[in-house]
Amino acid sequence: MKLLRLTVLLSAGFVLRAGATDLTPHFITQSRDGVMIRSPYFADGSRKFGIRIDAETKLSASDGGALFRFDKMPEASMRLRQSPLPAETGFGPEALEGYQQAARSLLPPGAAGVTLVESQSNPFPINHWESLRITYSYQIANQTHRQSATFLNLKPTEQIVVQAAADERHFEDVSNRAFSIVRRWHEILPEEAEPFN
Predict the structure, then answer these.
(1) Is the pLDDT of residue 45 over 60?
(2) Could you tell me how far CA 37 lies from the centroid of its own chain?
């Protein structure tokens, strides 16, 4: 019965729930040590949560979330989006199959030879977050790719998905970059959030 409820939730798609963090990237110009820097952030009501990315990472809005691209790996990507499952689902063994279905639904159209690689509990051991990562291997145009979907509870009532995808050769690098970006998630204090013109 619980699996049926998870399936229904998945078919409903990704909806921005009331009170959820807006994962569409916004930008603010801040002064750091006298240098003006354009910094990305995500809004949660009046609160702002910043991330840090390097010059080789490009960030844009995509499907109600954020898309990260990497200059040295043009076919690799990372996405932040709302989860199709509520945070209250939890990460117990009874929910694993539902999360695997959700992760599989995020694979690109045309993915063939799909194989479950692993399920990993709490791959982001930071901020007291709970998370679950599901990784699949698949073929596109006779090339092997991997994609992970990390379901992460930002807060007790909100779950997001961190997707990392690349050809097999670049997957570990993209996974490391995804972790580096997520672990730099930080609240921007009001005095830091004033734009400079």
Answers:
(1) yes
(2) 24
pTM of the model: 0.86
d(CA 121, CA 154): 15
CA-based end-to-end distance of the chain: 56
- The CA distance from 99 to 65, in Å, is 19
Q: Do the Cβ atoms of 98 and 2 come closer than 8 Å?
A: yes
* All residues at 6 or more sequence positions from 53 whose CB lies less than 8 Å from its CB, including other chains: 40, 59, 68, 181
For the CA atoms of 97, 101, 106, 112, the dihedral, rounded to the nearest 10 degrees, stands at 110
Length of the chain: 197
Q: What is the pLDDT of residues 176-186, one digit of tens each?
A: 999 999 999 99
CA 53 – CA 62 distance, rounded (Å): 17
* The token pair that represents 6 in the structure block: 């998870």
Please report, for residues 42, 48, 55, 150, the alpha-carbon distance to residue 31 in angstroms, rounded to integers and kept in the order given: 19, 16, 17, 33
DSSP state of 108: P
**H-only helix segments in the chain:** 2-11, 96-105, 171-183
Which of 147, 118, 121, 146 lies closest to 132, judged by CA? 121
What 8-state DSSP symbol labels residue 122? -
Token representation of residue 135: 């990784």
Token code pair at residue 46: 């009046």
pLDDT higher for 151 or 124? 151
